[in-house]
């Protein structure tokens, strides 16, 4: 799951426009950034699939630090505490905490039993793709571009995220996944967060009509 998490970040931005889209995307992807960091640090471990069938190229074997419920609650509280300390906005901090927890919820809902990677994948991709399309449409109708980046870089980023998400599920593993995937995954997520911070400046939220 990738774009489903980013969709939650778009919704949170719409609920509280003063929150940066970059911060909501960072909150939504926090668990996966921690996962790739912990795998690189040899703290958590994932198992790579060798068969070139469609589906995720790896499954987590011990990922409780980044993806367990107790630790997800801890990370969400930690992020909210940092936000209150830095910005003093409790409502925004509560929303960020909810976005962090949404990652856990969405991962649990999309969990497929081991060994049945293909079964259930297509319906889940359709559901996630629909949520993503709705979240992007909502954000686009609630905001306007203030410069050309807000148009072209925005849609380029949406296309890139959609492509990577699709490729993760249906593409064949490339290179040497055990060596490449953690660092590539981490860099991709950091790029997504940087893009979201940029888009937060390149697009502004419209005033709500009441
Ligand atoms: Zn995850």
Structural features, described:
Helix 1 runs antiparallel to helix 5, helix 2 (21-40) crosses helix 5 (90-109) and helix 4 packs antiparallel against helix 5. The model has no long low-confidence stretch (mean pLDDT 90). The protein has one domain (3-205). It is mainly alpha-helical and 210 residues long. The longest helix has 26 residues, at 177-202. The relative contact order is 0.19. The termini are far apart. The strands form two sheets. Strands 1-2 form a two-stranded antiparallel sheet. Strands 3-4 form a two-stranded antiparallel sheet. It contains eight helices and four strands. Bound molecules: zinc ion (ZN). The site of zinc ion has 5 residues, from helix 2 and helix 5. Residues 31-32, 67, 103, 107 line the site of zinc ion.
Number of separate helices: 8
Q: Report the sheet with the most strands, covering strand number, pairing sense and barrel closure.
A: 2 strands, antiparallel
User: Which strand order spans the largest sheet, edge to edge or round the barrel?
Assistant: 1-2
Q: From N to C, what is the helix and strand string?
A: HHEEHHHHEHHE
State the distance separating the first and last CA atoms: 35 Å
Strand content: 5-15%
Cα gyration radius (Å) = 17 Å
Name the overall outline. Answer: globular
